Amino acid sequence: MPRVRVNWQIKALLPVVCVLLAGLVLFTIATLTLRDPDRDALLLLAGAGSVIVCGVTIAVLAYLIQRPMVELQEKMALVSRGNLDTTVSFCRSNDEIGDLGRNFNYMVQQLKESRQEIETMHRTQMSRAEHLATLGELATGLAHEIRNPLAGIAGVIDIIGRDLPSTSPARAMVKDVRLEIDQINRILTDLLQTARPHPSRMMKSNLNTTIEHAVMLARQQVLSKPIRIDVITAPGLDEVEHDSDQIHQVVLNLLLNAVQAIDGKGSVIVTLGSNDDRAAIRVTDTGRGMTPQQIAQIFRPFYTTKPTGTGLGLSLVNRIVDEHNGLITVTSEPGKGSTFEVLLPFVQSSTEIDNLPIATAVG
């Protein structure tokens, strides 16, 4: 049988009303039937009854309201000291006070689950950070060891290329080898910058110039491919406080990724503008696109969907955008291309540095 819900106000006032009604009935009867001496006695009894009514009222209010409130204060003090295994006993009441108790118990349970989840994530992140730190040390040493002989190989290849006759078919092979050496050197550069990042040098400058320079270099990479790279600048855009070398690297990485995502003929459009009082850089391609599962992973170090990729480019992009107190978002669908948008504040303030936004990816 379901319990009847009664408001706590009714519970508190019901005994008082009953006593008052009984006293009123007795007083009326005495006034109409009793003589003066008896009437005086009854009035004295009525006064005593009033005192009893006040006492009953105080007792009922103390039981129904004060006791739960005192218990709630004690439990909240325990929660503030970190004890999340506590509950209140008055949650069984079928009234507003019971609702308060049930909400409190639910809130504490949610806090407990959230703390457990945060602790698990913290342990995972710490383990991952230690792993990446170790890999970073190993990668830095390995990159330096590779770069030195690689520079010597590049020098020898240049000498061989100059000594070959202009009609020699080996010239094309020498050119291909030189391109592969440049690719290895670029990978090592990304690896070193990921493992040992340089501090940003923020200066107010024209973001259009930074973007155009990156687009110019990217176009050199697609001279032999049926891929078009267009740029839409914003001449009236205010100057943006940024490290031009790092933002140049961000845009170049996004452009090269866009080019690699296109099979055959396609196009990449770089658009510069503003969005929500921030400078906006948008890189849109007509490539393969990505699934939501891939989007969720692309900013992780060493994650790549390309057979020859290192998985460091977008990780480096994400770190640089974070250092600029910016935001990077991704929208993509398989077969419909991808759009990367980078938002940068026009001015780097101390408030923004203390509240770094988190890069997000949406499908």
CATH top level label of the largest domain:
Alpha Beta
CA-CA gap between termini:
51 Å
Main β sheet profile: 5 strands, mixed
Strand order of the largest sheet: 2-4-5-7-6
Write structural notes for this entry.
- By secondary structure, this protein is α+β, with helices and mostly antiparallel strands.
- The chain has three domains: about 10-115; about 120-195, Helix Hairpins; about 205-355, Heat Shock Protein 90.
- The chain contains nine helices and seven strands, in the order H-H-H-H-E-H-E-E-H-E-E-H-H-E-E-H.
- The strands form two sheets. A five-stranded mixed sheet has the order 2-4-5-7-6, covered by helices on one side. Strands 1-3 form a two-stranded antiparallel sheet.
- Strand 6 (about 325-330) and strand 7 form a beta hairpin.
- Helix 3 packs antiparallel against helix 4 and helix 6 packs antiparallel against helix 8 (about 315-325).
